[in-house]
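All the exercises in this workshop are built on plain-text protein records. Instead of coordinates, the fold is spelled out as a row of discrete tokens. Once this layout is familiar, the rest of the handout is easier to follow. The record below serves as our worked example for the rest of this section.
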Amino acid sequence: MDHYTPESFTLTQSVGFAVNKARNLLVAELDAALKDLGITSQQMGILMSMRGGVTQTPFELSKLLGIDTGLMTRMLDKLEARSLLQRSRSLEDRRVVHLKLTKEGEKIAAELPHVAPAVLNKRLKKFTRAEFNELRRLLNKFLED
């Protein structure tokens, strides 16, 4: 079923426009909240993924966060320069790079579960529990292949 036609499509009424605008709003609000920690919302995703043990390599991070490998490399360079993570080559396969948070990286990552929910909860304050659950369900459905 097509929801848009060339005749009925308008940019500001499209789902893509609303999703992108919502993303930009959240990024700006998260970046402002993370300023004191000296990281960005994209770097937050990396640190939280590593802290939770979800990912251990740049490729896994790129796939999970939807960031191309070139940008991921640059972001990891910045985090490594700030001594928040370390990279090491796999002994079994030199093409594979393993990532590990440093003590400072762990310290900052431990703060993130206190920052992100405050930003999200402020944005979601007008939602009922049912609306919140429905929004998550619909977004997950939208993201399915």
